[in-house]
Amino acid sequence: VSALVAVVATIAVPRFPTLDFATEAGRRALYKGWLVSRLEGAEPAALIHGREATIAIPRRSKSAASIVLLAEGVVAEGSAPQVVSALLNGTPIGTLPADRGWQELRFHAPHELWIAGSNELKLYCASTVPPVSVGLGPDARHVALGVRRVAVIDDR
Predict the structure, then answer these.
(1) For residue 93, which of 19, 78, 107, 135 is within the disulfide window of CB 3.0 to 4.6 Å?
(2) 120 close to 89: Cβ distance less than 8 angstroms
(3) pTM of the full predicted structure?
(4) Which DSSP symbol is given to 13?
(5) What secondary structure letter does DSSP report for 80?
(6) Residues 25-47: pLDDT tens digits?
């Protein structure tokens, strides 16, 4: 039985996963602090409700990799960008600005931070605003960042 579980885990859990939050399968990785909605003119995305949220990233490898978010800062046109800090399994891996408009945010994660199995990515943002107040849709809940996709990519 143990050998069968190991084989299934090897096949089912990718080395470099991609989580697409427009799909039900991708949304299963959302742990806490998220809601699923749309920002103006976009497909469904996961929105950080409040200032922090957590994602479970399944991964069978412990090799160094980058975590790339396709994200949009929920900020007013022409204002300062959202500030996004990321922690992988409790260790900080960077802080980046997220402007209005969809863009990639890339955080490098060295091999010693990864766990073969399930990894916890925590995102912390500096501020929140209702999308309706900044022209990004009708939602009146306070959110910080929209995320369409999280991909783990090879750094080589």
Answers:
(1) 107
(2) yes
(3) 0.90
(4) S
(5) P
(6) 999 999 999 999 888 877 789 99
